[in-house]
Design brief:
The protein has 5 helices and 5 strands. The chain is α+β, with helices and mostly antiparallel strands. The strands form 2 sheets. Strands 2-4-5 form a 3-stranded mixed sheet, covered by helices on one side. Strands 1-3 form a two-stranded antiparallel ribbon. It is flat, with a radius of gyration of 21 Å.
Length: 176
């Protein structure tokens, strides 16, 4: 009898998670559509002002905040309805270089130098490209926010402490 009750509780919990996932997807759709419009208008508005003007900076801030909200919505959806990992062999150097290109313009605007060091003997690493890219992007953006007055952001990739693993370290140093 206790096993049946445990299974019933597990089914109820599963049903609640399914409902939460559907609700989160609906909310995400309803929120992302206006966010997309806001980003488009902010981009258009920003293009009408001089590069270093206060208005251009305000438009860029709106764009960055919309992007942050979109990332939060993606995280909510991932939490509510996790997707299976998609592991594939990925060449690590172009992957890291590509992930850093995503923040290059923001880094340049803040006076942050960006670079990476690879201390691996392997060229290809099994990983989930999209998920690791999202993790790295979040770390990079956190680093940039901490260095509003300039500095350096460095990604170091090396062999992990356990065989067959790797370590990715994101280091930021404020300008002194």
């Amino acid at each position: 009898l206790s096993e049946v009750k445990r299974l019933e509780a597990q089914i109820r919990r599963h049903d609640r998670l399914v409902a939460l996932g559907k609700m989160a997807a609906g909310v995400a759709h309803e929120v992302r559509n206006p966010l997309s419009s806001i980003k488009g208008f902010a981009t258009l508005l920003g293009s009408r002002f001089a590069e270093q003007s206060e208005e251009k900076e305000a438009a860029n801030l709106m764009i960055h905040e919309v992007e942050r909200l979109n990332r939060s919505i993606t995280e909510l959806l991932t939490y509510a309805r996790p997707h299976p990992l998609h592991i594939e062999e990925v060449e690590i150097e172009p992957f890291i270089a590509g992930s850093l290109k995503l923040i290059q313009s923001d880094a340049k605007a803040l006076g942050v130098e960006v670079g990476y060091d690879l201390e691996l003997t392997r060229k290809k690493i099994p990983l989930d490209r999209d998920r690791l890219n999202q993790v790295l992007l979040n770390l990079y953006l956190n680093s940039l926010q901490a260095m509003e007055e300039g500095g350096s952001l460095r990604v170091v990739v090396r062999e992990g402490s356990q065989e067959g693993t790797m370590e990715i370290r994101v280091e930021d140093r404020k300008k002194t």
